[in-house]
Design goal:
CATH class of the largest domain: Alpha Beta
Radius of gyration: 28 Å
Oligomer: single chain
Distance between the termini: 30 Å
CATH architecture of the largest domain: 2-Layer Sandwich
Structural class: alpha/beta
Number of domains: 4
Strand content: 15-25%
Shape: globular
Number of strands: 27
Largest sheet: 10 strands, mixed
CATH topology of the largest domain: Endonuclease, Chain A
Length: 713
């Protein structure tokens, strides 16, 4: 079933502006005094990290369209030039809010708790001597002053490196000459230098300010007139012709080298830098005033994250939390036996990811396991996961890994692990030409007493133990034969030469996923027209595809109640009269990054629930290998409905509601309404057994039913 976008530009929100609204919600967590102070600092840093990637990819793409004189309008009716202007204006407001937060909220609050940022010029004699020694022994040997004159052209600055623009005077032959120079702040040194303290105080000096303080040492015989920090962001998209690349691994390695020196797309600059120096920098970088952002605060704010590291100041952090082992697995050493009994559903990080790691380790060690096949998108360099695959080879098993080398900003890591896996004897392949491998699946073939059986792990998140502690994801263990057959055929497609033959249970992009989803939406619309119960709940990271949005609009007009839980970009406008008044859109921004994709269809009181790796974006539906799978076990299906979805929809603490104009408003509680913070509720529900309780049961919590939406909600 194909649905064309038949609605006009006023029915769609702009993707880039919607993303910026998401980053504003991230910043709101830094502004929220209800959050622990160091958690607020983390959100401040994440806001900067998000903006870096936004410029490296999205703004870089916009600028390329402008250079190519592209005039085609996006689905929301804007040309690339109009989008760029709107993005520039919105980013300026966001950056102003961000650094106002740093100056007026975070810095004073940190100082009140003994965490200060000191300028070298204001240190007492003892601290000044320590900083001078640190500069002389640690900083000076790796710092290089770079003059700017006819003999010394402007240096090639690396992407996102921090630099100082220096203005100085030199007297020669009775004449005073004015010069400029650049000093690159060493990337291999801590950006914050902590001063030695005998007590719990944490006093820091910014490395850039330390270098600035000692510039006279780098330029002896000159008079330093001033220095100003600046930072260049470059286009970081990778450009590889898959059809004309005989060796993808080498092509990715070569492109990684180019990324550091691609065209500049943004200049961040100290707000006090003289106008003429700013103009010179822009000219050298081939940028315009639209591309410069004047910063009143520390540049490269992501490096401030180090003040959150270590075990200090527990009172300024969220309480520690490590998800427990799933109760159904408590005390059970044999994962294969547990999976044979019934499907197992994990909700990370509330259920420990350790179960997934142990599944791989058991598979590697078990003499009855014959083969392991797995996809790897972002491993995070987890030695236990990669090590288990290598150990399996040493134990004589056939191991095949499909690695996505082009996982954005993880390319270097994936190249490294691919080579190590190959050296260990793992069959490493890189998927299908033209498609990124985004599916998350691991297939284990085992010889059981009653014959060969395929054990399968499917999920919404990566095989990455680090992110599994801070991302919310859902994963499933099953040995259902139909699932195993589908997975076998899909792996054969990825590693061999074949055409897609269809599946019985798994929904696979780009071959059939979109059509299946459209059919499920259309079925709800048909039920609504017949007066049957009809409802859709879709939780995902992004909703962009015009065809999917159009299908939701049509279902809404048929009377289907639709609740969308979308963390980031949403191009659908809810609440439009006669079009989307039956649609609500909410976003949860909290301690953990919402990452799971769960899709619920009422189906006339016979609910269908699907989980998978795909957002509803053109790239996921058309340009990636994605897997979405049904939850067929009724108990697990009810857990997703009554636990994950119901509590998320009930959240009135960390939820934001999308308005028809593209803005978001925090959920508002009535005076008599009980606060519901879904992530905190999930943590509570994962608590260990009550003392004295038997059977490995979790603490009892009231069951939450999926409440019907009131008319007009």
């Amino acid at each position: 079933m194909n649905v064309a976008p038949v609605y006009g530009p006023t029915h769609f929100l702009n993707r880039e502006l919607s993303w910026l609204e998401f980053n504003q919600r991230v910043l709101a967590e830094a502004l929220d005094p209800a959050n622990p102070l160091l958690e607020r600092v983390k959100f401040f840093c994440i806001t900067s990290s998000n903006l870096d990637e936004f410029f490296e990819v999205r703004v870089a793409g916009l600028k390329q369209q402008l250079e190519a004189d592209v005039l085609e309008r996006s689905v929301d009716g804007l040309t690339p030039a109009e989008i760029f202007r709107a993005v520039t204006e919105r980013v300026r407001r966001l950056v102003a809010d961000q650094y106002r937060c740093w100056r007026e909220d975070l810095t004073p609050a940190l100082a009140a708790h003994g965490i200060r940022f000191l300028h070298p010029g204001e240190l007492d004699a003892e601290d000044g001597k320590w900083v001078a020694d640190y500069y002389r022994t640690q900083v000076r040997p790796v710092t290089t002053p770079l003059a700017l004159d006819p003999a010394h052209p402007f240096p090639q600055l690396l992407n996102k490196s921090l630099n100082l623009m220096v203005r100085l005077e030199l007297s020669k032959d009775g004449e005073t000459l004015r010069h400029q120079a650049v000093v690159q702040v060493p990337r291999n040194l801590p950006r914050l230098v902590r001063l030695p303290r005998a007590d719990a105080r944490q006093d820091y000096v910014l490395l850039s300010q330390m270098i600035g303080h000692f510039l006279a040492d780098l330029f002896p015989g000159t008079q330093i007139l001033g220095y100003w920090s600046f930072r260049v962001t470059r286009n970081s998209e990778m450009y590889i012709d898959m059809e004309d690349t005989p060796n993808l691994l080498k092509a990715v390695e070569k492109e990684l080298q180019n990324r550091r020196r691609n065209d500049a797309v943004r200049l961040e600059l100290d707000h006090a830098c003289p106008v003429e120096l700013r103009a010179a920098l822009l000219g050298t970088l081939r940028l315009t005033e639209d591309d410069v952002y004047l910063i009143k605060g520390p540049l490269n704010a992501t490096r401030l994250m180090m003040i959150c590291e270590g075990g200090h100041s527990p009172e300024l952090r969220d309480p520690p939390f490590i998800g427990p082992v799933l109760p159904a697995l408590a005390g059970r050493a044999d994962l294969f036996a547990a999976i044979r009994e019934r499907d197992l559903l994990l909700h990370h990080p509330y259920d420990s990811f350790e179960t997934v790691v142990k599944f791989l380790e058991q598979s590697a060690a078990d003499p009855n396991v014959l083969a392991i096949k797995q996809t790897l998108y972002r491993t995070g360099g987890d030695q236990r996961i990669v090590g288990a695959l290598m150990e399996a080879v040493r134990n004589g098993k056939q191991v095949t890994v499909v690695v996505e080398l082009r996982a954005r900003f993880d390319e270097a890591n994936n190249v490294k692990w691919s080579r190590q896996l190959e050296e260990a004897g793992v069959h490493v392949v890189f998927g299908l030409v033209g498609f990124k491998i985004h599916a998350k699946m691991c297939l284990v073939v085992r010889r059981d007493p009653d014959g060969l059986r395929r054990y399968l792990h499917l999920g919404t998140g990566n095989y990455n133990a680090t992110t599994a502690r801070i991302y919310t994801d859902v994963s499933l263990f099953t040995c259902r034969p139909s699932f195993g057959e589908d997975a076998t055929n899909l792996f054969n497609l990825l590693t061999g030469i074949a055409q897609f033959q269809g599946t019985e249970k798994l929904l696979v992009a780009p071959f059939e996923l979109r059509d299946h989803l459209l059919a499920l939406i259309a079925r709800e619309a048909d039920h609504a027209r017949q007066g049957l119960p009809a409802r859709i709940i879709a939780k995902m990271n992004a909703l962009v595809d015009p065809g999917m949005i159009t299908a939701l609009y049509e279902a809404s007009q048929a009377g289907v109640k639709i609740d969308l839980i979308i963390r980031g970009v949403c191009c659908l406008r809810p609440g439009l009269s006669g079009l989307s008044e039956n649609i609500t859109v909410r976003s949860i921004v909290d301690r953990f990054l919402e990452h799971s994709r769960v899709f619920y269809f009422e189906n006339a009181c016979q609910p269908r629930v699907y989980v998978g790796s795909a957002d509803w974006m053109p790239r996921n539906l058309f340009r990636r290998i994605e897997v979405v799978f049904p939850i067929e076990d009724g108990t697990l299906r009810e857990r997703l409905i009554a636990d994950l979805l119901a509590h998320t929809l009930a959240d009135n603490v960390k939820a934001w509601h999308l308005q028809a104009d593209g803005t978001y408003r925090r959920a508002v509680r009535q005076p008599d309404e009980t606060p519901v913070r879904s992530q905190l509720e999930f943590i509570r529900r994962s608590l260990p057994p009550v003392s004295g309780a038997g059977g490995g049961r979790r603490k009892k919590h009231p069951v939450v039913k999926l409440a019907p939406r009131p008319p007009g909600a």
